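Thread: quick sanity check before group meeting

JM: Hey all, I'm pulling together slides for Thursday and realized we never actually wrote out the predicted structure for the chain we discussed last week. Dropping the sequence here so it's in one place. If anyone has concerns about the input, flag it before I start.
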Amino acid sequence: MSGYRCPIDVSIKPLRSLRLKITDRCPWNCWFCHNEGTGKRDPSRTKDIYWDSEFEQVLVELKSVLSLNEVHLTGGEPTTNPNIANLITGIKFHGLDVKATTIGCSYSVLKPILDAGISGLNFSLHSIDSDELLKTQVDRKIEWMRKQLKQQMQAILIAKENSVKVKINTVISSDNDISRIIKIIQWANSHQIPIRVMNELNSGNQ
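JM (edit): ok, ran it. Output follows.
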């Protein structure tokens, strides 16, 4: 639909969402990644989160104290946690919506997440061109990047087709990124997907 424009959310809402880092692992190596503030990625130190009675008890207490209505799963890349579907099911059992920020994953990994009833997925999409996207990575090859981008864009469309609330996040660090951002906005518009453009943290004064 050519007349569609991405909605801009300017409302102020009470904080009722808990960001939960469920893994430190990620197959990508974006040079600007803040890794949820935990610094250098080290899965041996920051372990995967699993659903068990102790976690459930803490979640119930947090929901009560903070009046939570949502849990937002992050990482690392949350889809690399093999227990993510169980986490979604358990969290939803207590009346909470579950969303996640992701770079995407294969359909075999995505399907159990969709089946578990995830409410929303924010996809980190930093280019629709594999050569441009490779510039965001450290120590990655172009063949790998092409495969990852194809998988990512397929995951975005599959999630949308399954009635998940899909959004796109992308990062801008300087004026040099404007043409790249415009291409992403145009692609998002063509699929009627909202997009959020964020400033790269180390370039906040630009």
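AS: nice. DSSP finds six helices and six strands in the chain. The first helix runs from residue 53 to 66.
JM: adding both to the slides.
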